[in-house]
């Protein structure tokens, strides 16, 4: 049970506070700030998410420079608290489009309304974003216009669930155009050694996000597969677990609007290839107080097994239009990924450490920045045309006498490859079961993102 | 269209005035914007309570305005309680609104205002809401009952809300069920009546089936509530597990962990190992998945996984790679990962673990790199077989010649060498050669220790020591201490060659050093040396205790308890819940800090505050703890060369121990002074009426004489017409193990109508039996009557059986004992203080101590001052009585209060406490 919630900005100022049980004084948040300031290195982000207080504990979550701080006075489940703070942050993003001090301050009334609605007496009340939106109208432009005109807000919230069997779906959903979008987002976490060609960790975390805009009470059945078996699957509660366990089929009545249908992990990585190979050479010349750097990003996803959608042919239903949405960035839709996919949002970070005082590095794509306070070099590559290999070469200068501490840095790479799936995941089929019968549009796409993609040199 | 953020900055003069105008404006738009600004001002901490009446007028607006008004009312109702009553009507009206949202909002807001006047009006709408047709209202109402219980438990019970809440458990809507479960379990824990939420073989399956349709949060509550349920047999456990397994696949980490907790607790109930290993496999994947969540969640998961793997080492042993740290992990996550890596390390996975640790050792982050290095050493200590490989890695690290790496290797190498004294001679030479890179005092002390320990095997010990000790006066104390030890060891190992350096260091220690520790140790060595070579060799070069890797290992019992409370705060702290959680009177453990005259013991928060901040959370300090602790050990070992035998240490100390203690004035404050010469008189009550005693009337009771011996004061009166004789006495087994210390002496014959009074001395030491409660059952045999039985209730004379010596509890014991007793069984009473007692707290302590009631701590800063008392009853049952004695509060008053508790639930405990309180009052009320 949560007793109080505070939201602090990056300087420790309390922007929002809400007490559910009695009044936890602000000294608590002050204590939090002092404690974190005292923590290992004075960086609040480095403070353990858990601080004992005389009466209980403070649990915090750090997101976009904001600290979500919850105070609990009884022996609660901390994961429940953290998870709640997580969903709180997610709801804010959902409502305000962004999460930062400004967004919170500009919408503080909505924030309080949300805090009031999401947590009652310290117990979560309504957390599902779709249901919440029924109760509290997001601060959209339209609503502001209404408000400034002095009119009542767009609609008076009422609640009606479709049926007690599907409490996540509201009743009487009607769309002029029925459509459903399925996005498979795979995040690849990899740690490997460039010199020893030794992969120490590889994990693919996938999320299947669905945005359902279907009328009535549609009952859907979906099959999803990948080249490697899914290791750990977590499903939205609308999915019938028994059916999934028996046949691997996802059968569900979707909530209206966007939701996370399923998350999966793939660890069986023998059959998988890394989409980008980082080749690097970093050498220090201790005598000359300098070093040479050469890094290139070789796209390998071309050679990966192209995932395929066993498309319209295998789906017998004649009533549907199978379509694929092309990605705005020019990527191919899922299932038609070709060897020459494009990667974008590419950036490389090399935290050398403070012993590196300067660098002169040049790249064939993007820009290079060096921050001398932390000794970190950032290479913003941006989008890379197909078939090209971005590379970075140049010299770095070391601090005098620092040769002894010079250690090879890790290279942190982030990228996005639209229309490509590392695990070759594909949606085998997506059908609507009777009784609902109408034509609808299906959009499927896939994207691979780098999570913690780090290379040891 | 201005964003609300602007409102954070308005602080013009006359703001209140403007707001008031706005709130009374004619257009809704203006009123609403003023309302927003008012609430904004309120959140900024400005006092806008003067607008109360103006704000309240706006309750008639739309839902969002209503919400703002209610937000305002909740904040200021307490301060404006007389005005708050004005809005009750609005609430009552809203509670029957056709819109369920408004109905629920009205109930919620009313329950939040903890004013008795409002509570009165809450009852009727709440009854209605609990039976509302809309599930949203019902589930809100369920939580309101818990809220109401918080502010007004009596009303909640009297109005039958608890019963209505229990009825909701069978509601058709799973969300309502889960909220009812949550509310009931909260009330149950607040009122200490776990039976409120009945967990039986019929209700638990019902909750479980409701759970599958609940929201994730509802699932957490239900899982949490049933975690205390133990199924009757393997079959039931099987069914429960079957129901819970699907929860492992939930996307919400808290659901997963709550499910894991129940499954782990059900494991012992299962009947086959096959099922257990199946469950382990089932749990592994979701646990690993938790490690891909954000760092804050990961941290909690890791702390719990740490507990799990120490109980079920096989659970994740094949997945050791998932604990490999990533660059982006915050340090606290990395530290936890390292700890688990060490715990999971085995011969089969050591290759990959060690090479991964080697990667970390060259990390840019110095703290992390050093932690990784100490992990290599910990693995060496844990796994004999791979120790060689670990040491070769350490040697490789030394070759890098990076200062912080070399230093850390020296520190951890010391532990490895202590574990395996006779291996790895090569690396010793290597680390000695790297000595120029070592500046850090801890590392240097470790290096010097190594040199001293292996003085006999190293080629150039003496030169090395000479170089190192050259600037001994510039070193930190721990290094100086190690230098002393090392030189003495070298002197013993190498012989005369090292005499010079040894003498030099000893001279520095005994003549020049200003540090007491260094001087003392210098003197100890000097005297040892003068005792002759044999003696010192025996002491300094004796075998040392081996070391073990104990980081993160918890005592068995704690481990079990934490595993039961897996996923709770306790499990994350690795501390039992009772040491930190709880409401009033359950403050954190105050760490005993020596003998402080005044100390706050019981949840009196101000002082506790600092103490608990001091006892910082061991997250980041964890892995360094071993090395420093072992380091401390090695210092202790070293001063006298290892296992300190009492025989060896006695001559070294210059004065006998008792003198030492008394000269330092360390006699404990509570030790009984010479017993004052008071006899505790007992009332003469009839123990055995003549009708039952076959003409023998016995009066008397338990008492204590001036020397503190217990006796049974008995007066025999022959009310029959025949003379009596041959008296004998026997005791039944009793709680305190009291037996007669001497035979009963009554002159026979005892003529009719004559009396004889005698004392039977008693001693504790017989067999004890708790089944007779506080009764002392006595049998008296005489002729011609035969055997008669009577009983003395000791609880009325509890002062007689208090242990006069061992009753002083240590502060932590006192605290834990105090907390183990529920608040409800506390007995309170008034205490009259004599003039002596009021003026001198010392007098109180002395007086009480003379009767076996000891003062554990005083809290003089409190107004009025408070004393914490303890005493222990005789006999093996060791019943402990604790009391909080509050001195008279006001000047001129002589009545204070006492609140006492007893660690026994035997019937009669309450009257024992009453008698205890009376004894205290009696003692303190009489002038000396």
Molecular structure report:
The complex is a heterodimer of chains A (457) and B (928). Chain A has 457 residues and is of the alpha+beta class. Chain A has two domains: 156 residues, 2-Layer Sandwich (Beta-Lactamase); 288 residues, Immunoglobulin-like. In chain A, 16% of the residues lie in helices and 40% in strands. In chain A, strands 8, 9, 11, 13, 16, 17, 19, 20, 22 and 24 form a ten-stranded mixed sheet that branches. The radius of gyration of chain A is 25 Å and the shape is globular. About 10% of the residues of chain A have low confidence. With 928 residues, chain B is α+β, with helices and mostly antiparallel strands. Chain B is globular and about 95 Å long. Chains A and B meet through strand 3, strand 4, helix 2, helix 3 and helix 4 of A and helix 2, helix 4, helix 7, helix 9 and helix 12 of B. Chain B: It comes from Chondrus crispus (Carrageen Irish moss). Chain B: Belongs to the adaptor complexes large subunit family. Chain B: Keywords: Membrane, Protein transport, Transport.
């Amino acid at each position: 049970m949560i007793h109080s919630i505070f939201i602090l900005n990056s300087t420790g100022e309390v922007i929002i506070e809400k007490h559910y049980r009695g009044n936890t004084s602000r000294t608590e948040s002050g204590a939090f700030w002092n404690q974190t300031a005292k923590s290992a290195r004075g960086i609040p982000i480095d403070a353990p998410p858990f601080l004992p207080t005389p009466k209980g504990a403070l649990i915090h979550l750090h997101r976009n420079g904001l600290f979500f701080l919850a105070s609990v006075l009884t022996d609660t489940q901390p994961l429940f608290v953290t998870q709640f703070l997580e969903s709180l942050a997610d709801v804010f993003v959902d409502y305000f489009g962004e999460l930062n001090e400004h967004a919170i301050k500009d919408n503080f009334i909505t924030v309080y309304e949300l805090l009031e609605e999401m947590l009652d007496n310290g117990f979560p009340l309504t957390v599902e974003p779709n249901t919440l939106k029924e109760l509290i109208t997001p601060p959209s432009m339209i609503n502001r216009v209404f408000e400034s005109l002095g009119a009542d807000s767009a609609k008076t919230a009422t609640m009606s669930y479709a049926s007690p069997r599907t409490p996540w779906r509201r009743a009487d959903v009607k769309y002029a155009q029925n459509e459903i979008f399925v996005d498979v987002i795979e995040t690849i976490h990899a740690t490997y050694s460039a010199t020893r060609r030794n992969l120490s960790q590889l994990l693919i975390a996938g999320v299947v996000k669905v945005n359902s805009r279907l009328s009535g009470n549609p009952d859907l059945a979906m099959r999803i597969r990948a080249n490697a078996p899914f290791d750990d699957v977590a499903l939205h509660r609308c999915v019938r677990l028994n059916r999934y366990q028996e046949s691997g089929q996802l059968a569900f009545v979707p909530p209206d609007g966007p939701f996370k249908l399923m998350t999966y992990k793939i660890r069986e990585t023998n059959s998988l290839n890394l989409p980008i190979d980082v080749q690097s050479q970093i050498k220090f010349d201790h005598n000359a107080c300098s070093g040479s750097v050469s890094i290139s990003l070789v796209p390998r996803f071309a050679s990966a097994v192209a995932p395929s959608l066993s498309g319209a042919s295998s789906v017998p239903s004649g009533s549907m239009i199978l379509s694929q949405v092309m990605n705005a960035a020019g990527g191919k839709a899922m299932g038609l990924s070709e060897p020459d996919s494009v990667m974008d949002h590419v950036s490389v970070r090399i935290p050398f450490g403070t012993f590196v005082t300067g660098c002169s590095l040049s790249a064939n794509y993007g820009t290079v920045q060096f921050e001398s306070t932390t000794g970190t070099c950032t290479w913003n590559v941006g989008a890379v045309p197909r078939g090209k290999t971005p590379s970075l070469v140049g010299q770095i200068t070391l601090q005098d006498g620092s040769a002894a501490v010079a250690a090879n840095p890790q290279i942190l790479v982030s990228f996005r490859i639209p229309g490509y799936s590392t695990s070759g995941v594909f949606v085998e089929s997506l059908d609507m079961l009777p009784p609902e019968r109408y034509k609808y549009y299906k959009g499927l796409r896939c994207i691979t993102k780098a999570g913690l993609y780090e290379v040891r040199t | 269209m201005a964003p609300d953020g602007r409102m954070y900055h308005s602080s013009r003069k006359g703001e209140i005035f403007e707001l008031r105008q706005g709130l009374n404006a004619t257009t809704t738009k203006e009123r609403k914007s003023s309302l927003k600004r008012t609430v904004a001002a309120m959140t900024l901490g400005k006092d806008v309570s003067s607008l109360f009446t103006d704000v309240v007028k706006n309750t008639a607006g739309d839902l969002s305005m209503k919400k703002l008004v209610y937000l305002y009312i909740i904040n200021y109702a307490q301060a404006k309680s007389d005005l708050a009553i004005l809005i009750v009507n609005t609430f009552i009206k809203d509670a029957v609104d056709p819109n369920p949202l408004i109905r629920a909002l009205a109930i919620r807001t009313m329950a939040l205002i903890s004013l008795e006047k409002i509570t009165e009006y809450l009852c009727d709408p709440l009854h209605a809401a609990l039976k509302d047709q809309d599930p949203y209202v019902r589930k809100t109402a369920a939580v309101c009952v818990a809220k109401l219980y918080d502010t007004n438990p009596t009303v909640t019970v009297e109005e039958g809300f608890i019963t209505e809440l229990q009825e909701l458990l069978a509601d058709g809507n799973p969300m309502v069920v889960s909220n009812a479960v949550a509310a009931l379990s909260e009330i149950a824990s607040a009122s200490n009546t776990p039976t409120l939420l009945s967990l039986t073989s019929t209700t638990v399956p019902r909750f479980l089936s409701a759970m599958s349709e609940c929201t994730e949060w509802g699932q957490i509550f239900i899982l949490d509530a049933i975690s205390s349920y133990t199924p009757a047999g393997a079959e039931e456990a099987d069914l429960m597990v079957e129901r819970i397994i699907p929860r492992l696949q939930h996307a919400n980490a808290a659901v997963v962990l709550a499910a894991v907790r129940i499954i782990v607790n059900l494991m012992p109930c299962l009947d086959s190992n096959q099922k257990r290993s199946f469950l382990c496999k089932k749990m592994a994947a979701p646990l690993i998945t938790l490690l891909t969540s954000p760092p804050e969640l990961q941290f909690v998961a890791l702390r719990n996984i740490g507990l799990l793997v120490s109980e079920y080492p096989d659970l994740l042993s094949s997945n050791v790679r998932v604990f490999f740290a990533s660059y982006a992990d915050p340090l606290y996550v990395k530290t936890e990962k390292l700890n688990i890596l060490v715990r999971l390390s085995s011969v089969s996975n050591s290759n990959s673990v060690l090479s991964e640790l080697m990667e970390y050792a060259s990390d840019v982050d110095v703290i992390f790199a050093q932690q990784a290095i100490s992990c290599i050493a910990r693995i060496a200590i844990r796994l004999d077989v791979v120790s060689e490989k670990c040491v070769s890695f350490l040697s490789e690290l030394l070759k890098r010649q990076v200062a912080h790496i070399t230093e850390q290797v020296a520190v951890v190498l010391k532990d490895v060498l202590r574990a395996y004294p006779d291996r790895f001679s090569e690396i010793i030479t290597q680390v000695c050669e790297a000595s120029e890179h070592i500046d850090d005092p801890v590392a240097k002390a470790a290096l010097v220790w190594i040199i001293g320990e292996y003085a006999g095997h190293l080629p150039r010990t003496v030169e090395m020591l000479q170089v190192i000790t050259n600037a001994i006066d510039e070193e930190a104390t721990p290094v100086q201490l190690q230098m002393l030890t090392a030189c003495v060891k070298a002197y013993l190992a190498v012989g005369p060659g090292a005499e010079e350096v040894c003498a030099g260091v000893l001279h520095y220690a005994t003549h020049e050093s200003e540090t007491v520790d260094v001087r003392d140790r210098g003197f100890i060595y000097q005297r040892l040396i003068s005792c002759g070579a044999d003696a010192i060799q025996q002491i300094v070069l004796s075998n040392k205790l081996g070391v073990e890797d104990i980081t993160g290992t918890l005592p068995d019992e704690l481990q079990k308890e934490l595993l039961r409370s897996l996923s709770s705060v306790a499990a994350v702290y690795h501390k039992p819940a009772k040491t930190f959680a709880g409401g009033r009177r359950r403050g954190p453990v105050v760490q005993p800090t020596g003998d402080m005259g005044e100390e706050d013991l019981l949840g009196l928060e101000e002082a506790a505050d600092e103490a608990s901040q001091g006892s910082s959370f061991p997250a980041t300090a964890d892995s360094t703890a071993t090395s420093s602790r072992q380091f401390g050990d090695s210092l202790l070992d070293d001063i006298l060369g290892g296992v300190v035998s009492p025989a060896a240490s006695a001559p070294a100390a210059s004065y006998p121990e008792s003198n030492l203690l008394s000269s330092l004035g360390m006699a404990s404050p509570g030790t009984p002074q010479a017993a004052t010469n008071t006899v505790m008189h007992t009332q003469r009550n009839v123990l055995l009426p003549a009708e039952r005693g076959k003409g023998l009337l016995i009066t008397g009771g338990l008492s204590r004489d001036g020397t503190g011996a217990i006796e049974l004061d008995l007066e025999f009166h022959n009310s029959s017409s025949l003379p009596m004789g041959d008296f004998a006495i026997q005791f039944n087994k009793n709680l305190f193990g009291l037996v007669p210390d001497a035979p009963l002496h009554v002159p026979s014959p005892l003529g009719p109508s004559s009396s004889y009074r005698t004392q039977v001395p008693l001693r504790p030491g017989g067999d004890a039996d708790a089944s007779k409660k506080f009764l002392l059952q006595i049998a008296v045999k005489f002729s011609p009557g035969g055997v008669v039985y009577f009983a003395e209730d000791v609880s009325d004379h509890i002062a007689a059986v208090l242990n006069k010596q061992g009753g002083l509890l240590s502060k932590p014991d006192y605290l834990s004992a105090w907390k183990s007793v529920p608040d409800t069984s506390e007995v309170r009473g008034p205490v009259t203080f004599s003039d002596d007692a009021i003026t001198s707290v010392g007098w109180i302590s002395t007086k009480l101590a003379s009767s076996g009631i000891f003062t554990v701590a005083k809290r003089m800063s409190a107004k009025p001052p408070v004393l914490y008392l303890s005493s222990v009853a005789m006999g093996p049952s060791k019943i402990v009585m604790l009391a909080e004695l509050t001195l008279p509060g006001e000047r001129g008053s002589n009545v204070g209060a006492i609140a006492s508790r007893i660690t026994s639930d035997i019937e009669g405990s309450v009257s024992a406490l009453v008698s205890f309180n009376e004894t205290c009052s009696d003692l303190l009320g009489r002038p000396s």
